[in-house]
């Protein structure tokens, strides 16, 4: 099967290259189903130096990208979303699209930094303020049906084909097990004292009316005995966090990865969707305790307050561009394996914007990651938070050639850098926050990444 495909793709690309005058060729074909995490794991073995992974909360849409045929990246601050949009349109205009018996279109995948005005540290050097890529090979799985898209620069298909041939060869062989996780050498929470002080100061400032809400995040660092391979972590996240977005974006051997429950925005034609997620409590140890915690969260003034700011902002942002916006009048509970949240889904109809990036720009950062008022809160985070957030808490996702797409908020995430890993977690500070409870909340939010790394919470 794989051998057949290989010849077919090579032949097709060759024919197209001969007659096509455009700089890029993108060719899509129906394909046999393959485990996406396994597909992702084969990238480096086939000399693809970049890779990404995306699965939405229901696993309905899964994308795996290997290699990089076209990169859009910018260090611009104000204009970054606009620049990506313009370059994407230019690329679409330069590309010849071919497909065989499928409606699937190629996508652009990537993300943004949380705050382009925060000075970048060495840790995030491979992650500019905006970076989105068109992969050389894209595996798309939609509703259980798979397609493969090969995108090449015209005249350069031979180089990509060599790697693809290797990929097909490996897929044809008996499946090798995923990498195992190395053992933990060191676990360290970073600048906890400074973070707690920042929380205390922020609470005081909120109490005198300087802000309504500010989200403050912190970092923990882990060192392992060996290289931490992204596919091993991804495999664990997939098992342990079944109702979250799974994402990974690997560049220069560094991989930003996570399992986020939080949708920033999705656009499908003229409908758009978002979720308000803020307000948290851990899961109970028994069914009864778990229900008690949930009931408490639904009634707790401080958490409802935290949540309300997010609802207000998302509602306003959607109302500005949609004819109709629907949402339930009060939050529901979203129960995840380690934590429960207050949750309000939002649906916008007859959306007037043509590209998801305009919605991303409007909505980032929501008060679940930044605060209220937005500008003042982000400035305060920049000043007092002892952390370079990089891509943590920022938009990550995809868009297609029609301007549709979906972005999650990259929380419950970490950065894999060889044997070292940084993980991040934040929480919404309001006037009646208690620093120790907020500290505990961030600990619970570290759990998904720690478990995926094979680390127990008390290590
Ligand atoms: C900032 C994070 O969570 C946000 C999302 C849900 C609940 C939150 C909270 O209750 O504080 C946070 O706003 C994080 O997980 O790092
Ligand atoms: Mg909270």
TrEMBL record:
Q: Where do the Chorismate-utilising enzyme C-terminal domain residues begin and end? A: 192-445
Indicate whether Magnesium appears among the record's keywords. Answer: yes
Chain positions recorded as Mg(2+) binding sites: 306, 441
Q: Which SUPFAM superfamilies match?
A: ADC synthase
Catalytic residue list: 213 (proton acceptor), 262 (proton donor)
Q: Does the keyword Magnesium apply?
A: yes
Origin, by domain of life? Bacteria
Molecular function in Gene Ontology: isochorismate synthase activity; magnesium ion binding
Top-level EC class, please? isomerase
Enzyme nomenclature, EC number = 5.4.4.2
Please provide the record's keywords in A-Z order.
Isomerase, Magnesium, Menaquinone biosynthesis, Metal-binding
Its UniProt pathway annotation is:
Quinol/quinone metabolism; menaquinone biosynthesis; Quinol/quinone metabolism; 1,4-dihydroxy-2-naphthoate biosynthesis; 1,4-dihydroxy-2-naphthoate from chorismate: step 1/7
Checking InterPro entries in the record gives:
ADC_synthase (IPR005801), Chorismate_C (IPR015890), IsoChor_synthase (IPR004561), MenF (IPR034681)
Q: Which cofactor does it need?
A: Mg(2+)
GO terms in the biological process aspect are:
menaquinone biosynthetic process; salicylic acid biosynthetic process
Q: Which reaction does it catalyse?
A: chorismate = isochorismate
What is its biological role? Catalyzes the conversion of chorismate to isochorismate.
What family does the database annotate?
A: Belongs to the isochorismate synthase family.
Listed name of the protein: Isochorismate synthase MenF
Naturally occurring in which organism (per UniProt): Saccharococcus thermophilus
């Amino acid at each position: 099967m794989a051998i057949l495909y290989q010849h077919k793709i090579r032949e097709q690309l060759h024919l197209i290259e001969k007659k096509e005058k455009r700089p890029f060729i993108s060719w899509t074909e129906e394909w046999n189903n393959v485990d996406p995490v396994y597909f992702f794991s084969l990238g480096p073995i086939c000399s693809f130096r970049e890779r990404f992974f995306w699965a939405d909360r229901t696993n309905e849409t899964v994308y795996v990208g290997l290699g990089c045929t076209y990169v859009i990246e910018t260090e611009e601050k104000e204009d970054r979303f606009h620049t990506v949009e313009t370059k994407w349109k230019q690329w679409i205009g330069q590309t010849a699209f071919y497909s065989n018996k499928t409606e699937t279109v190629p996508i652009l995948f990537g993300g943004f930094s949380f705050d382009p005005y925060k000075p970048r540290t060495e840790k995030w050097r491979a992650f500019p303020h905006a970076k989105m890529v068109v992969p050389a090979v894209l595996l798309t799985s939609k509703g259980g049906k798979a397609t493969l898209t090969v995108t090449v620069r015209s005249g350069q298909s031979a180089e990509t084909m060599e790697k693809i041939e290797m990929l097909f060869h490996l897929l044809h062989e008996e499946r090798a097990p995923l990498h195992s996780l190395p053992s933990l050498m060191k676990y360290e929470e970073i600048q906890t004292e400074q973070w707690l002080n920042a929380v205390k100061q922020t609470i005081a400032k909120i109490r005198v009316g300087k802000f309504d809400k500010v989200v403050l995040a912190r970092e923990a660092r882990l060192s392992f005995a060996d290289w931490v391979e992204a596919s091993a972590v991804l495999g664990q996240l997939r098992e342990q966090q079944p109702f979250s977005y799974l994402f990974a974006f690997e560049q220069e051997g560094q991989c930003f990865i996570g399992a986020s429950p939080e949708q920033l925005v999705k656009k499908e034609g003229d409908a758009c969707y978002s979720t308000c997620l803020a307000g948290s409590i851990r899961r109970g140890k028994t069914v009864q305790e778990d229900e008690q915690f949930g009931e408490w969260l639904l009634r707790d003034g401080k958490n409802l307050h935290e949540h309300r700011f997010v609802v207000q902002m998302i509602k306003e942002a959607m109302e500005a561009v949609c004819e109709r916006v629907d949402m339930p009048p009060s939050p529901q509970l979203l129960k995840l394996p380690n934590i429960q949240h207050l949750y309000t889904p939002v649906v916008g109809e007859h959306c007037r914007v043509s590209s998801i990036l305009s919605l991303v720009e409007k909505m980032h950062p929501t008060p679940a990651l930044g605060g209220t008022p937005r500008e003042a809160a982000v400035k305060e985070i920049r000043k007092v938070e002892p952390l370079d957030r990089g891509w943590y808490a920022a938009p990550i996702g995809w868009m297609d050639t029609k301007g549709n797409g979906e972005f999650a908020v990259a929380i419950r995430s970490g950065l894999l850098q060889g044997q070292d890993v940084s993980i991040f977690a934040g929480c919404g500070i309001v006037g009646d926050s208690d620093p120790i409870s907020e500290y505990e909340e961030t600990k619970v939010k570290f759990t998904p990444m720690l478990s995926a790394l094979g680390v127990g919470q008390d290590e």
